[in-house]
Write a structure and sequence with these properties.
Largest sheet: 6 strands, antiparallel
Number of strands: 23
Order of helices and strands: HEEEEEEEEHHEEEEEEEEEEEEEEEH
Number of helices: 4
């Protein structure tokens, strides 16, 4: 009976000591030099630098495709140059290009003929003068001719000059943007890419972000600009996810294909306190808050570092409160009963 009572008394005293140790009267700290600094509310904080590349998302660039085999290409602009829509892009050579232009002209004539037949028979069909099966056949041939010609016309519209004697044509850029291409010594087969044109509105940053750090990411900061993060991949590849920015701003002064280090900026409701204010207490990070004649121990969670400060989260509001920044270890020692330094 006495043993249980003694144990309960010891536990009660220990609990009372632990509770009491969470704060201390400033008057009991003797001649310790005490200095304070205000904690400030932050809505964003920087993470560690991550690798990024100036690039574009799949599908956002315009691809110029060879309609037939091309034996020789002479590009009229350099890789990475900006071209305006309609500007001469490349000179293409090869006998199959001449055949393509001939086929396109034949397709155009066939479409005109099919269109005339379609329009004249449409009136007859509406008057019930021809059978439905005949009208279906006429309509089918007309739409097939239209699709065939339109398919060829997309490339044909790019041809701004042609020389039938040496089977060459000059094509123009279909859109404005940055040009990219790979030189092929053996020409290009039908369906191969002649060039890739990336509109300026599609050029953005892609950053490799540790998957564990994706929550709250709001901006990617370069030495010259700050870009909003537009999307973050939901698929992890070797511990990383891809974070995409909004299109580059003019002041970014970055080049397509360039790699660089960027600073991720995270949004949060947190506080900035000096590193000297933070110490370990019973296995958690804590600070000592100045409240009238007392110093009160408050637990915090370290989120990041910024220069000589920590970014911390706290269940209680620390906005505009003063935290102890000097003699912290001495006060800590007094709190645990070891006495001042």
């Amino acid at each position: 009976m006495m043993t249980r009572l003694t144990t309960l008394l010891i536990l009660t005293m220990a609990l009372g000591k632990a509770v009491a140790a969470s704060e201390i009267e400033i008057a009991n700290l003797g001649e310790l030099s005490l200095a304070y600094q205000r904690a400030s509310l932050v809505t964003s904080y920087p993470g560690q630098n991550i690798a990024a590349q100036v690039t574009f998302k799949k599908g956002e660039a315009f691809t110029v495709i060879a309609p037939r085999r091309i034996q020789q290409i002479k590009y009229l602009v350099e890789v990475g140059s900006f071209v305006e829509r309609g500007q001469p892009l490349a000179e293409l050579r090869g006998p199959e290009l001449h055949h393509f232009l001939t086929e396109m002209e034949v397709a155009r004539q066939l479409l005109r003929s099919a269109e005339r037949r379609y329009k004249s028979n449409k009136v007859l069909f509406e008057k019930r003068a021809i059978k439905e099966s005949q009208w279906a056949e006429i309509s089918e041939k007309y739409y097939a001719a239209q699709l065939e010609y339109e398919h060829m016309r997309h490339f044909g519209d790019l041809v701004i000059a042609k020389d039938e004697e040496d089977d060459s044509i000059v094509i123009a850029a279909p859109v404005s943007g940055i040009v990219d291409y790979a030189l092929e010594y053996n020409g290009l087969v039908s369906g191969a890419d002649i060039a890739l044109i990336v509109p300026k509105s599609a050029i953005r940053l892609e950053a490799a972000l540790p998957a564990s750090n994706r929550k709250g990411l709001a901006y990617l900061k370069t030495p010259s600009c700050e870009l909003i993060v537009s999307s973050i991949s939901g698929i992890v590849s070797k511990f990383f996810v891809s974070a995409w920015s909004e299109p580059l701003l003019p002041q970014c002064e970055l080049i397509l294909g360039q790699t660089l280090l960027v600073t991720p900026l995270y949004t949060t409701n947190a506080y900035k306190v000096p590193m000297t204010a933070v110490f370990q207490w019973q296995g958690t990070s804590s600070v000592l808050v100045h409240q009238g004649s007392r110093l009160k121990l408050v637990q915090v969670e370290l989120i990041a570092s910024s220069g000589k400060d920590y970014i911390v989260a706290c269940d209680k509001s620390l906005e505009n409160t003063e935290v102890l920044v000097s003699s912290v270890s001495a006060v800590q020692g007094i709190l645990i009963g070891l006495g001042g330094e």
